[in-house]
Amino acid sequence: MSIDVLLQQIVNGLVVGSVYALVALGYTMVYGILQLINFAHGEIVMIGALSALFVTNALIAVGVPPALALVVAILAAMIICAIVGVSIERIAYRPLRNAPRLAPLITAIGVSIFLQQVAILVFGRNYFTFPEIISKAPIQIGAITVTMNEIVILITSVALMTGLLWLVNNTKIGTAMRATAENQKVAGLMGIDINKIIAITFAIGSGLGAVAGVMVASNYGQAHYYMGFMLGLKAFTAAVMGGIGNLWGAMVGGLILGLVENVGLIFVRGDYKDIFAFVVLVAVLIFRPQGLIGEKVAERA
Amino acid sequence: MSAVLDIKKLEVAYGGIKAIKGIDFHVNDGELVTLIGANGAGKSSTLRALSGLITPVGGKVTYKGQDITGVPSHALVGLGIALCPEGRGVFARLNVHENLLMGAFARKDKAQILAEVDEIYTMIPRLKERTKQMAGTLSGGEQQMLAIGRAMLAQPKLLMLDEPSMGLAPMMVEKIFEIIRLIAKRGTTILLIEQNAQLALEHANRGYVLESGEITLQGDAKVLLADPRVKAAYLGG
Ligand SMILES: Nc1ncnc2c1ncn2[C@@H]1O[C@H](COP(=O)(O)OP(=O)(O)O)[C@@H](O)[C@H]1O
Ligand SMILES: [Mg+2]
After folding, report:
1. Which residue of B44, B166, B215 sits with most ligand 1 atoms within 8 Å of its CB, as the best mutation to test the pocket?
2. B162 or A287: which carries more pLDDT confidence?
3. In the 3-class helix/strand/coil scheme, how is A97-146 assigned residue by residue?
């Protein structure tokens, strides 16, 4: 193994990992506030990718410049996913808020299957080609090769994550989100409408998921109704690895998972790539169930 | 005198078992009224029903002439009602300053809010020394001060306190009551719930004694303090 190959895989790992991180944030934010694993989050990512793909193609077809079409499509996908995410919470999860924890978990799996079926109805079962709008021509930087598409993915992810951290840590609504995550009853006593905060959480997580979906679709050049499954599972792994409920954990977990997968590819054939995520998940659950950054949940009221 | 808070035939139940069995009481404008009773008497249940944390199964709660029975807690804050819950309920992973700001969540007057945060810091200097400290790392007494300060930032007309002295050392209890006295003096109407009957009655205008979900005694706080039945049951002599 040469150092160049290693460097190349690290770069690839960071790109993929930053996408995992964005998706993982959706899992971890919802978990942090509701202690619910929203298994339908992967499908939100898929809906984001497919709706962006269709909007982009439609806009290009009527003569909109591709770059503008992409930007508009991403915004549209974010709005669509936010609406879907908020609706899922309102319709499927809220009535179960005081139910035993198994009930919302099974419901989440049901919602996930439901959304896949909806996607088949709306978009179809095909593998759709995502248009190459940001160039994927190789750029040589020293010994490593990247594409403009990858650079844009990395920069966008970092910008979105920075923005989210700022929002959560420095704004009134972010403080209310943290307060609600810690104690919904007392948050209510402060005048915080916790249902609104929960809806905002779903909207933000879903919006980030939409962007991640577009990133994956543009990076691999395709999207299909089933793409959310594996991606969702890996992002969930990343969230658990970092310590579910913890924003930094989701980000670090995503990056580590991306790195492990891609550096691992040096040693293992490509078709075994997906194994790493689950080896990591099992290892974390055995040796450090609270995650790398996760705190022991002790002070909960 | 006009009643700020008027409770009629309030009933609270947990899964069919009545914890509050139809009680009546009221709090007048500017009064400090205390509701005393032993552990399990139903004090917290009463406050939970008043603050929208649970919906009463019977009775009526009137605040300034308005029926607020069953109104959710987040909607009561805007009406001028604040509750300092049992066990303090500070946000452990928010710092002191953020906790105080959450008390003012429903307000928009940012400059005035910050001025009042400073006032709280002046009134409770211990909090000022710890503005950036996570609330979970504070001592019990400091957390109680924070909880009271936070409730005050809602600019309540009616402040309800659930056992602010619980689990605190006597010196700290003194300090907490000093703060309560200060708040009362500034004109805030207070409903104080306590197990520490002696201290509560010493500070209150009027008092009610709650026993197994029923009010058994009521009247002027000084009179209750001297009442042999109160003495026997709650004042250790
Ligand atoms: N969440 C609950 N579920 C069932 N019973 C409760 C609950 N909370 C309180 N109780 C019961 O209601 C009664 C009154 O409790 P509470 O209002 O907490 O009393 P206090 O605050 O005076 O100590 C007690 O018998 C208690 O066991
Ligand atoms: Mg109590």
Report:
1. B44
2. B162
3. CCCCCHHHHHHHHHHHHHHHHHHHHHHCCCCEECCCCCCCCEEEECCEEE
The C-alpha atoms of residue A265 and residue A276 are separated, in whole angstroms, by 9
Q: Pick the residue whose CA is nearest to atom 14 on ligand 1.
A: B42
**Could you tell me where the beta strands, DSSP code E, fall in chain A?**
128-129, 138-141, 144-147, 222-223
Nearest to B26 by CA among B76, B63, B53: B63
Q: Do B154 and A301 touch (CB under 8 A)?
A: no
CA angle, residues B104, B108, B113, in degrees to nearest 5: 50
pLDDT digits (tens, 9 = 90+) for A136-162: 999 999 999 999 999 999 999 999 999
Tell me what the mean pLDDT of segment B17-25 comes to: 96
How much is the mean pLDDT over chain A?
Answer: 94
How do strand B206-211 and strand B32-36 relate by DSSP bridges?
A: parallel
- The binding-site residues of ligand 1, defined as CB within 6 angstroms of any ligand atom, are B 14, 19, 37, 39-45
What ipTM is given for this predicted complex?
0.92
Q: Which two tokens stand for residue A294?
A: 């996760």
Q: Does B140 touch chain A (CB under 8 A)?
A: no
Query: Whose atoms come closest to the Cα of B40: which ligand?
Result: 1
Assigned CATH for A3-299: 1.10.3470
Please judge whether B77 and A193 are an interchain contact, meaning their C-beta atoms are less than 8 angstroms apart.
no
Q: What is the pLDDT of residues A216-255, one digit of tens each?
A: 999 999 999 999 999 999 999 999 999 999 999 999 999 9
Distance from CA of A27 to the nearest CA of B (A): 20
Report d(CA B50, CA B160) in Å as an integer. Answer: 9
Alpha helix stretches (DSSP H) within A35-65: 41-61
Going by alpha carbons, the residue nearest to atom 11 of ligand 1 is B19
Would you state the structure tokens that stand for residue B46, as one six-digit string? 């009463």
| Domain residue extents for chain A | 3-299
Query: Does residue B38 contact residue B27 with C-beta atoms inside 8 Å?
Result: no
* Ligand 2 center to B193 CA (angstroms): 8
pTM reported for the whole predicted model: 0.93
| Two structure tokens written together for B28 | 């007048």
